[in-house]
Each structure stands twice: as C-alpha cells, then as structure tokens.
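Box S1 | Example of a co-folding query
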Amino acid sequence: MKAVKTLGQFIIEKQADFPYAKGELSRLLRDIGIAAKIVNREVNKAGLADILGDAGTMNIQGEGQKKLDVYANEQFISALQCGGECCMVASEENDECIHIESEISKNAKYVVAIDPLDGSSNIDVNVGVGTIFSIYRRISPDGKAGLPDVLQRGTEQVAAGYVIYGSSTMMVYTTGKGVNGFTLDPSIGEFCLSHPNMSIPDDGVIYSINEGYYSHFPDGVKKYIKYCQVEDTKTNRPYTSRYIGSMVADLHRNLIKGGIFIYPLTAAAPNGKLRLVYECNPMAFIIEQAGGKASNGHNRILELDVTELHQRSAIFIGSKNMVAKAEEMMACFSPQRIKKNFEGEVCLQ
Ligand SMILES: O=P(O)(O)OC[C@H]1O[C@](O)(COP(=O)(O)O)[C@@H](O)[C@@H]1O
Ligand SMILES: [Mg+2]
Ligand SMILES: [Mg+2]
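Box S1 (continued) | Returned holo structure for 1,6-di-O-phosphono-beta-D-fructofuranose
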C-alpha cells in the first residue's frame, strides 16, 4: 500500500531545502490549503448552498462579482489574517491592497496576491473553476507593506500555485524547486501528494484559445491558429482545440497533457484580459518550473515590469516548443504594430 504523504508533511520535509527557513512560508502554504478546503466544500455543493449566481456587486475590473467570487475572497483573506504569516493581500476582487494590521501579522515576511475564484463564468454551470495565488517576500520596511511589495517582477515570486475545483480538487504549487500536485481526499480532509515532480511535455497537440474572438486577434495569432489546423501528420497536426474558459482548468490540462493556452490582445481587450499579478505571473512561474514557457508573445512574462495592481497582459503559455512557434509568428508583428492593427490600419501581412 503506497504511503500517503499529506501537503503538511511534504511542506515540512521540503523546508530542509531552504537552510534558513523558519517555517513562515510553510505555515503560509498551510493557511492557503485550509481556505482551499473551505471553498471546496461550498463549490462541491454550490447548487444547494445558495452560493450560485451574482452577488449584485462589481469589482474594479468592471466585472459583475459572483457570490462565489466574494465568498472565496473572504475565506482566503480571513485564513491569511488568522495565520499570521502574511502582512498584506492583493486580490482581484479588491480595488486596493488589504493590510493585515494584527500584532502577529503586521511585520510578517510575506505578501500574497490572489485570484480567489478563477473561471467565474463557469461557476453556475458546474464546470471546473480554480484559485490562483502568488507569494512575494515583503521588500518594504516593517509595518510599511504597500503597493511596491506586490508590483515586483514575477521573477521575484518565492512561491506560486493554484487550486482546481474539478472532478477532484487539487492544489498544485512551486517554491522554485519543481512543481508538485496534491489531491484532496475528502475522507481524511487532507491534500495528499498525487502528482510529484510535474513536468509539461515540450510538445503537445492541444491549442486552447477563445476562437470566438478570431476576427479581433492579431495576425500573428491568426497565423498560429491556421498553423495548428493544417493537416501534417509528421507534426501531429491538425492539433485539437480545447477551451474550458477557466484559465486554471485549461492550464492544468495542458500541464499534464502538453499544449498551449493563448489569451492575446484583442480589439475588446487591447491590453489583454488576464491580470499579470495574480493570474499570468503565478501561472508562468509554475509552467516554467515544469519545463514550459510563458510570454506575452514577445517577452517573458516573469520579466515584465509591473506598474499597476490590476495590470493586464497578453499570455502565450504551455509546452515550450509550441510557445516558441507561436512567438515566431508573432515576431512578424511588433506590439506597436499590433496596436496599430486595432486602430484599423491595414496590416502588412
Ligand atoms: O470568456 P473569455 O473571454 O474567453 O475569458 C475566459 C478567461 O477569463 C477568466 O475567467 C478570467 O478570470 P476570472 O474568472 O478570475 O475573472 C479566465 O479564467 C479565463 O481563462
Ligand atoms: Mg481569473
Ligand atoms: Mg477571479
């Protein structure tokens, strides 16, 4: 019988990888795991728990908040407040950063950026949703945590992860030493190591993009979609199209099977849709740690300058050879040219 290793046991064991570790990061990951279990409980019985539907409020993105967006946000913030290892939270659902003033937390070493519920458009229809988190070391002086702490480049993340609430619930995370996945065993209420040392294949046969916006895509993206659809058995094409509409679920599938996920600049979202701080940077850290690649079509996501909390970015992420191919086609079009393209100027293609 294979020994079960829980998330808590694994975290403590891995602490040895960090000679100066005092357990703060371990306890912070524990706190995130606790909130994930509470959210999972509600997601699993969402239809019965009066937690489906709209909350009737808008977030700073101008998006209508779902009841589960608000619930998940509250659960993660309160778990981080109780745990004492986080001095500030930046959330998709809050305009500004939330300072944790309690005595035990205000000088805590870490700040957390979070997308409490990812894939909100799928909540009411029982399709996989997730949570995305990113952890940075506070760079501001004691008690002075602020925006600069979450506007650090993605390369400065000390840990990142996601939770997927799917047919089973999993937590997948990295601390910069590989990627590991844990499946929640409801019978013991523990996340247990199920996917050690996850790695994404260098090549895949899945492309994931919302083709409904095709006419608004940059020509480089149109060219790449055409490339995916061409008949060529030598390169396993045509690839197959899969798009769930929850970034976590689309990336989790591609992490395991190989594939590329693209959310480019579009006419409707000229700066992209997905948010750099709590969606693109953490997912890029995980995918790179699994051997994949992540860019905005031109530049490495993790090296992008972060100037705003809810800043958006285009993202091309997944199997490294597939992302490289897409970048090759985007190279025909510099970001400036793409912008011009949206202003209706004829593309040189
Ligand atoms: O419906 P679209 O435009 O394809 O967008 C889907 C994308 O938007 C998101 O739902 C945005 O995330 P949130 O649900 O956290 O706002 C992603 O999960 C998903 O990849
Ligand atoms: Mg999201
Ligand atoms: Mg969200």
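The longest strand covers residues 110-118. Residues 206-342 form a domain with the D-Maltodextrin-Binding Protein; domain 2 fold (CATH 3.40.190.80).
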